[in-house]
């Protein structure tokens, strides 16, 4: 198994400490892991934009010069439109910027680094990256389609048909929101109403009345569904804490 990891921290000693732990773990697990080190967020972003950094996992310090970890994470998600890279934040502070919600980080690791937590974050990333990806299948006329769950942003009801919105566009097929919600309920999808299902990983902002998705689509939450949606949302959030 190949895994590309970037470590971005303005503390060079910290970077090499994290790298050493990762490489020792790679030997134990027989993983082929490549690690690149950056000392500020701007260097990391430029490297990715130049086409050199197709990373699976990035460790970001929150406080850095030039471009901090929060800004770098938001840039990756909103400007580069990359929602597949798993981002783990490393910080000496217990309070986190609300802007981090837009980044949908995989995990937080406090300083000083706990080796057990660091190794856990690698295993968690591998699970999220879905080396054996999960798919959603649907049929149109006599053709069958499959889409990786990680690429699906949301479903919307359109009469007797369902609109499926992915990172690559939209498609329509005959189906039921209720059936789709039942099929995907353990995979990070939340049924907001009888006409909509959203992927938690593409939520940009959540409030009691509505959800803003990464493509700026606003999904209203019916009054009679708000407590249930909040409960589902908190369950998904707990997976990242």
Helix/strand layout:
Blueprint: E1 2-8, H1 12-29, E2 32-38, H2 41-49, E3 57-61, H3 69-79, E4 86-91, E5 107-110, H4 115-129, E6 135-140, E7 143-148, E8 152-158, E9 161-166, E10 169-174, H5 177-184, E11 189-193, E12 196-199, E13 203-206, E14 210-213, E15 218-220, H6 226-238
Overall description:
- The protein is of the alpha/beta class and 241 residues long.
- The chain has helices spanning 12-29, 41-49, 69-79, 115-129, 177-184, 226-238; strands at residues 2-8, 32-38, 57-61, 86-91, 107-110, 135-140, 143-148, 152-158, 161-166, 169-174, 189-193, 196-199, 203-206, 210-213, 218-220.
- A five-stranded parallel β-sheet has the order 2-1-3-4-5, with helices on both faces. A five-stranded antiparallel β-sheet has the order 10-9-8-12-11, sandwiched between helices. It has a three-stranded antiparallel β-sheet with strand order 13-14-15, with no helix packed on it.
- Strand 8 and strand 9 form a beta hairpin.
- Helix 1 crosses helix 4 and helix 2 packs parallel to helix 3.
- It is globular and about 60 Å long.
- The two termini are 26 Å apart.
- The mean pLDDT is 88.
- Structural class given helices, strands, pairing? alpha/beta
Number of helices: 6
- Give the rounded overall mean pLDDT: 88
- Rg of Cα set: 19 Å
**Which regions contain 5 or more consecutive residues with pLDDT less than 50?**
none
- Proportion in β-strands: 25-35%
Name a few traits of the molecule:
241 residues; alpha/beta; globular; single chain
Q: What's this model, at a glance?
A:
The protein has six helices and 15 strands. It is α/β, with parallel strands linked by helices and 241 residues long.
